[in-house]
Predict the 3D structure of the following.
Amino acid sequence: MNLFLTLFSGAAITAGVAFFIAGTVALLRFPDPLSRLHALTKADSLGLGLIVLGLLPWAGGWLAALKLILVWLLVLLAGATATQMIAEHIRRSEPPP
Amino acid sequence: MSLVLDVMLALAVIGVAGWTLLVRGNFPAVIGFVAYGLLLALVWVRLGAVDVALTEAALGAGATGVLLLFAVVRLRGGKAEIDAATPSPPQRVAAAILCGVVGLGLAVAMLNLPDPAPSLAAEATRHLPLLGVGNPITGVLMAYRGLDTLLEAVVLVFAVLAIWSMAPDRRWGAIPGPLFPVQSSGPLSLLARVLPPIGIVVGIHIAWVGADAPGGKFQGGTILAAMGILAWVAGLWRLPPVASRGLRWAVVAGPLVFIGVGLLGFVIADGFLSYPPGFAKPLILLIEAAMTLSVAAAIVLMVAGPPERPA
Amino acid sequence: MIFGVTGAALVALGLYGLVTQPALLRKILAFNLLGGGVFLLFGVVARRGAVADPVPQALVITGLVVAFAATALALVLVLRLFQITGAATIAEDKTPP
Amino acid sequence: MAEALLLAAGLIFLAALAGLYRALRGPGAADRMMAAQLLCSGGIAALLLLAAATGLAGVVDVALVLALLGAFASVAFVLAARGLGQR
């Protein structure tokens, strides 16, 4: 059981890190701000989700695991709101391509 | 591996700080400064000082960012005078050399500090069970150096008064800060409706948990203040006028309770700000609760600024 | 010990910014950089013993809150100066009042 | 185990820094806001990994506070860019 857990969380965290790096590559490569914004938020919300998933078994107790999930949900809420507002800002400040 | 992480973190902090200084335009500088605050919070976690990391994260992201952004928006213009006052290149080089020497001296001093590191950790933790408090930093803040924390609570009240005194006479007693239109729909109103309840619970949790784990009144108060500012910025909460009784009581509640319990020390313990042996924790928690309220109120008022609009 | 040198570097950077930045808002930002560096030095000194020394950490927490209050007051003063004189800097007063 | 977590935290932090570097140089204010948001979520991820690796008490609380106030900072940036409220 323990081996399976270690493999599972290792895989999840590696995938999470991969998504973060993908998000950053997107930020570096994509031409216009809107597509960058889209890729960035998707990548780091999902990346964080996978990392939290990977950390759940080692969180030590149910309450700590719930707190990790709460952190992730807050980041999702925060990311969604901030992204929409930044998109609004981009739309308003630059003419559509 | 942790060494590599520390070096990266250190270079990042210095890089962002340098960038904040050299970038054209106030707006990017403030964004750089908030990033600097975030990185400092990470540095504090690496240094093992989680309480300080909490304070830096809460203050940096929550209150200081908004405060600086308000200033940036209102300080637009004034370009001509700034160029006139920019020091000439030789002056800048001289200043750079001077600051380099100061930095070097500090670095050298930091690298060979006295070998048996003088530390008060032992004394601090030895008396903790007497106080019934688990977190040594709360023990220091509330008991060993209680007077410092009391004076600091009073400093916050004075800061609010000093900011209010900047208002023109005809605006005295008015509502502080600009008017924010009510956001009927859109992401901001969603956030301002969903986040504050969670934030208030988290803020009170962190203020409460401060007795035995990292946390405390300053961190909890700052989070509550940030939630108040969010609701105010989204137009959901109208700041009360400066003259309102409730607001003034909220700001002075913390220091008053602190002084009250301190004076109580004469009667039930052996002096000002000393706690009776078995009864320390309830008193400390009472002070912490009142202080959390006052810190939150003071920070909101400091961000809002002097009274501007008639009631 | 890396963070000790970082703290010293931040103090140097903050001081440089404080001295050379003409705009008052940027001076206040530089001053906060300086403050952050000094607090970092406190943190490093606190960390040197076997267990972290709580006294400097408590001082830093108090310091951070007071530094925020000082920044808030400084910004209000700069705003007032800007409202009265229309200048966001303290240039030598060439024109008599 | 802890080493692996620290490695993951380091990688994420490196990714966040790369994004920060590019975005802070970016012309528009929107790029800079994205940089702050990326650094915030990267910081939170690194903190969670550090919490698991070092077992320090309260580090998850720091991540919680950052998650809570990170959104708030980004919102404040957008509002400031739009010019806050009326006089």
User: Anything to note?
Assistant: The first helix of chain D runs from residue 2 to 25. The CA atoms of residues 74 and 80 of chain D lie 10 Å apart. Chain D has a mean pLDDT of 81. Chains D and C do not touch (no CB pair under 8 Å).
